[in-house]
Amino acid sequence: MKLENVRLRKFRISDISKLYELANNEKVSENLRDAFPNPYTLKDAEAFIKNCLKQDPVLTFAIEYSEEYVGNIGLIPGQDVYRGSAEIGYFIGEQYWNKGITTKAVRILTDYGFSELDIVRIHTGIFEYNTASMKVLENCGYSKDCIFKKSVFKKGRIWDEHRYSIINPKYE
Ligand SMILES: CC(C)(COP(=O)(O)OP(=O)(O)OC[C@H]1O[C@@H](n2cnc3c(N)ncnc32)[C@H](O)[C@@H]1OP(=O)(O)O)[C@@H](O)C(=O)NCCC(=O)NCCS
After folding, report:
1. Which of 60, 77, 92, 158 is most exposed, with minimal Cβ within 10 Å?
2. Which long-range CB contacts under 8 A does 2-7 form with residues at least 24 apart?
C-alpha cells in the first residue's frame, strides 16, 4: 500500500535491529502507553515483530519512507459491541519527524481499514502534550470528539487525553 514515497508493508525478521534503534528513545515512548517500554530492548523488538508475523489478517505494518523502514502503524480491532471500531496507533523514529510521513501513513491505513476491512469507526487517544500527533489526525480528516480529563498517568504526572475519531463514509 503506497502513497507517493510512503509505503506500508508486512514486517520482516530483518527489521528487528532497526525497530530497536527507532523505538529505544524516550521522546518516542513518552507519547505511548507503558506497554511500549523504555528502555526498549532488542528482545522487545523481536517479540513484537514475531507477533506481527502471526497476524491474519495483517493489522500492523512497517512504514517505509523512500524504501527505508522508519516506523510502525497498526489497527487494534474492538470487541463485543465495539467490533465495528478499531484503534489506530503509530510511531516513527525521531530522525524522520516532520517530513509528512505519518500523515501519509495514517491516510493509507484509514482508507485500507474502511475499504478492505469494512471498519465503521477508527479512533485513538492522544496525550495533551502531543500536538504533532493531533495535527496528523486533523490533517487526515479525524475530528476531536472530547477530552478525557486527567485520565492518563505518564512522566510522573496526570494528563488529559484528547480523543479523536473518523467515521467510514459508507456508514455516515
Ligand atoms: C507524532 C508523530 C507520529 C508525528 O509523525 P510525523 O511523521 O513527524 O508527522 P507529520 O510530519 O506527518 O506531521 C506532523 C504535523 O505536526 C506539526 N507539528 C510538529 N511538531 C509540532 C509542535 N510541537 N506543535 C505543533 N505542531 C507540530 C507539523 O508541522 C505537521 O503539521 P503540518 O503538516 O500541518 O505542518 C511522531 O512525532 C512520533 O512518532 N512521535 C512519537 C510517538 C507518537 O507520538 N505516536 C502517536 C501517539 S498518539
Report:
1. 158
2. 2/108, 3/104, 3/107, 3/108, 4/104, 5/65, 5/66, 5/104, 6/63, 6/64, 6/65, 6/101, 6/104, 6/105, 6/108, 7/63, 7/64, 7/67
Q: What is the model's pTM?
A: 0.98
Q: CB–CB of 88/74 below 8 Å?
A: yes
Catalogue all structural domains in the chain, each as residue range(s) with its CATH number.
2-122 (3.40.630.30)
Q: Which residues line ligand 1 (CB under 6 A)?
A: 28, 31-32, 90-92, 97-103, 124, 126, 130-133, 135-136, 139
Tens of pLDDT along 24-61? 999 999 999 999 999 999 999 999 999 999 999 999 99
Gap from CA of 117 to ligand 1 centroid (Å): 26
